[in-house]
Amino acid sequence: MSEASHIVEHLIATLGWRGRFQCIALLLVGFTSEILSGFNHVIMAFHGPPVSHTCKAGPQIHLGYNSTSWVQSSHAYSVQPYVTNVTHSECLTTVTYSDGQDEVIKCTSGQWEYFPQYGERNIVSEFDLVCSAEYLTSLATTIYFTGVMVGGLVFGDLADRFGRLPVMLFTHYSLAVVGLISAFSVNYTMFVCLRFITGIFVQGLQNSAFTLAIEFVQPQYRPLAGVVVDLFFSLSIMVLAGLAFGIRNWRHLQIAVSLIPLATLLYTWALPESLRWLVMKRKTQRAEKLLRRICKINKIPFPVETWDRVTSTAGEQVLVKQQYNLTHLFRTCSLVKTVGVSAYVWFVISATYYGLTFKVTSLSGHRYFNFFISGLFEAVVYVLAIPLMNRFGRKGPLVGSFMIIATMCLASGFMATYSSGLEQVITAFGLTGKIVSSCVFVIFYIYSSEMFPTVVRSAALGLCMVWARLGGLIAPQLNQWTSVLLGFDVIYLFGAMSLIGGLIVLTLPETHKRRLPDTFGEGNSFSNRISTQAKTIGLAGKPVKDDANREMLGTCNGSENV
Fold it and tell me: Which residues lie in coiled coils (predicted)?
């Protein structure tokens, strides 16, 4: 590890982790990020659940004869066929005439009558997203997660360049504006376009906030910091269930969740930038100002000696002054492997979590109660994740959780296929799989953030989130089309993917109680677990003499310098 990295770790250790400043900062960052992000991630469960409906196409017809039933034909009168029966189905109206002929009338916009189970008004009934247009509901979720995927790429790099805090605040308040506009969507096209933009800002908010949170604490307390932030996500699920239960109109619900940022105006002045980021970017004046503020609030002396070491190394770390981007992650085989495995695991986590989340509302039981319970137990799982990660590291709990998810999904699918009368058990298994998948979410968020160096941590997380959101955008399509195209319940697919995910995690390095890597050399060491005295070999197979290049270069056949 470089001298600057040692100094930063020592500086953060000097400040402690239970100081008043750190506790307040974590709570504020968690509320700012996860409440609004959680609302937007899962709100389609209430904006677009299926609604019972009947086609009311055709004119208002009275059965039997009427004054128009007789028409003159030549010199005699004949009887025109009259209506004997009208049958309404979900998508068609069938009119039967006295001559035995049937006329089938297909419903068009405005010709459906809706029977919402809980008296709600959502986008399905308002935009007539039924019958041939039913797929548009899941498409809206897919478009949203496409925006999230784009946001991971865009804002991850911006957070590394301009800081975690500016990106977090910009995306937070942008979400409020876009969310309010969404509530006044005049048609489906406008709604999904705004959902796409919402997704972009949501991912920028989550990435920057989570990175900011874990960079404020020592290695052994990163799980706690991550869980504190993620607890607000589970809280958002419980709050949203309550809001949706009380506000049955989707437009009013959208306005309610979009007004949350008004509360954050009271404390934005107190939110800090990442001390680690400031030091590694050589912004010593801002770092010193923040450090003095932390010491004052925590009532501890200013670490003069440690800070002098920080300023004395200002000219030594040439690399951290450079601007890095996503391409640097693919210059060594060790980081390529880490990125590849992380991408697949994130895809599985997201597809399973959101697939089961949207499936929860269609399981037996009360929709709002199921949703609230899932959020409540997610919070419990988040808390349990802390001692699990502290005692067993990252890989063990992650693999175990994946195995539980696979078991729950496969068992649930088997019972649904081959048994009857077990609806409550199937619901319990499905909820368990969804709840445990949230545990995987929080563990791997912390795990993946620990494997990449500071100089590109946000960008790397952004790239991982692209794959996570790819899983999220595919999840609603999997729910809708798997049984139609493949002939089996989608929950089997979630189980199989989780099983593979648990096995592939075994190829990743353990990061438990290890210092966060700051430079590329340290990131390579994390992936290869090699000695810090290992000889550096360039991409061409020759020793690298230049210190600056030595941090960047690696080889598939040799070692990387640390």
Answer: none
